[in-house]
C-alpha cells in the first residue's frame, strides 16, 4: 500500500481506507528507490577532493566579496556624511522641498564618491591577495599583510613615492590589525 503522505489525498479524506479504492503509485514498476531522492545530504558537496581541503574563497569570489563589501560600506558611510553636510548647508529661508533636494543630492554624491574609492581599494586588495596566495602557494596572514601593503602603495602611487610608502604602511598596519583581531575573536569569543 502506498504512503498517503507522499501521494496525498483529495478533499481531506483518506481514499486508502475506503473499500474498493487504492492509490496509484507511478513508481511501482520502475524498481528504483524513489524515497531516497528526498534524502539530501546536509554537508557541502565537492566535485574534487582538493576543493574540500581548501578553506578559502576562490579568487573570483574574493574579488566580488571585497569589492562589494567595500562599495557598500563606502556608499553607506558616504551617504551618512552627505546627509550630515546636506542638513548643515540648509539656509533659514529654504522650503522643505529644497532642503530635501539638497540632502538627497549631497548624500548621493558623497555616497557614490566614497563608495567608488573604497570599492577600488577592495578590488586591488582582492587581486593582490589572490596573487600572493598563487605566488607563495600558501594561505596565511603574511599574504594578507603583503596585499595590504601593496594595495596602499599602488592606490597612492600617482601621488609620489612618499605618499605611496605612507599609504602602503597604513594598509599593511590596518590589515595586520584586522588579522590580529580576527585571531583574538576566534580564540576568546565562543561562536
Based on the model shown, name its key terms:
191 residues, mainly alpha, flat, transmembrane helix, protein transmembrane transporter activity, Tim23-like, membrane
Structure overview:
- The chain is mainly alpha-helical.
- It folds into three domains: 4-38, no CATH class; 59-136, no CATH class; 140-181.
- Helix content is 64%, strand content 0%.
- The chain contains six helices and no strands.
- α3 (59-88) runs antiparallel to α4 (96-136), α4 packs across α5 (141-155) and α5 runs antiparallel to α6.
Number of helices: 6
Q: What distance lies between the first and last C-alpha atoms, to the nearest angstrom?
A: 48 Å
Q: Unreliable runs, pLDDT <50, ≥5 residues?
A: 8-13
Strand content: under 5%
Main location: membrane
Organism: Apostasia shenzhenica
InterPro entries: Tim23-like
Subcellular location: Membrane
Structural topology:
Layout: H1 4-7, H2 49-53, H3 59-88, H4 96-136, H5 141-155, H6 161-188
Helix pairs in contact: 3-4, 4-5, 5-6
Summarize the structure.
It holds the Pfam family Tim17. This protein is mostly helical and 191 residues long.
